[in-house]
Amino acid sequence: MIQLDVIRVSHSWILVVIGLVWFSYRKIRQRRAVKPLSPTTTSGKHEIDAEDAYYQIEPVSDFDLESTEPIKIRPFKPKYHLTMALENVTLSDLVAIDNTYKSRIALRSQLIRNKTFDVLAANPIISPAVTEFYEWIIGTYLPQRFPTMFKLTAPAPDSRAAPGLRNLVTGQTLPLTPWSAESALQIIGENIDDDFLFLLPTGTGADAGKYKLEGFITCFPSGFNTAQKLNMKLADIHGPVPGYSDKLEKSMDRFFANLPVGKIVRRVNWSITTTRELHVLSGTHLTMEQLKEREGREAEEEEVEIENTVLRCERQTLHRLPRTKALVFAFKTYQYGMQEMKDEGCGTELAEAIDGLGLGSVPGITVYKRQVVWGEKVKAFLRS
User: Fold this and answer.
1) What are the extents of the domains in the chain?
2) Cβ-count burial of 138 within 10 angstroms (0-12 exposed, 13-18 middle, 19+ buried)?
3) Taking CA 266 as the corner, what is the angle to CA 194 and CA 169, rounded to the nearest 5 degrees?
4) Fewer Cβ close by (within 10 Å): the C or N end of the chain?
5) Burial classification of residue 277, based on how many CB atoms lie within 10 Å of its CB (0-12 exposed, 13-18 middle, 19 or more buried)
6) How far apart are CA 105 and CA 101, in angstroms?
7) Where are the membrane-spanning stretches (predicted)?
8) pLDDT tens digits, 241-277
């Protein structure tokens, strides 16, 4: 009888412990969902509070894919200056989706299948960061931010299926945990119309602390092959950019090293390209050596077809993952035709900005952006 009472008491305590564990779990989830943000920092007692920003995603509850037009980015100015030009945003602003989603996702899936090694790679050291980002963006961000497009699913009680995320546009169900970093990047690339690059600091030597590209999914590069940039530091990646080493390298290195968990910044850039292709591995930049070769061989002048020429802009963001502390650089590409710019009334302003490429802090940008090739014909059209 005494033994039976002991068993009953032990059983009761087990139930109490289980109840306390469940209650604590619910309180943690509630804290992550509703607790106001504390000042953002990467040290001390506020580290946990900074991580809460990743769970306070503002939903776009009435989001309608078909009626949402791409945002219009008009970052050009009368004089071009090479600066970071950052603005603080929230993690809710990480991904922008519009009515080009279906066609863009179809193209991205095709590129991932046919040009895998050009668009996707992950060094072993970055695998934990890729997994961390995947589990957050698939399991938390997308269903919270875009509930009309993405829905978490739970299998039937008698099913062996795992929980997942249902893409209501494509009909696919995505796993909440990837089986590899490469599969994570593939799923991200096939469901989000943004490109993502993952960076970690170098650990030893004279370059210790400087950030290096360790993994990426980039379907829409603008004139560069990301696979060739893998394992490069920021300075090496931006080496061809006029003025980078003098004007941006030190400040960029400092900013990347000090960006705290919970903070996300955004910037935009612009260029003119003479192709509407989104996946462009080369041909949109020019060096002085290449320019001299063009002039020396008396080649036929490159044909610039206005109908295929676009203002190409990138909406870029940068943030730090809370657990692995890796940095995630993301960008979404937008294209606007020259006729669209004229119809909008921006033709003259854009033409002045094209002239202004050579009037700012880095005149060499006129060659780098190939303005010396397409500039006169594009300006004449915009001003006509």
Assistant:
1) 50-296+303-383
2) buried
3) 30
4) N
5) middle
6) 6
7) 6-25
8) 998 988 899 999 999 999 999 999 999 999 999 999 9
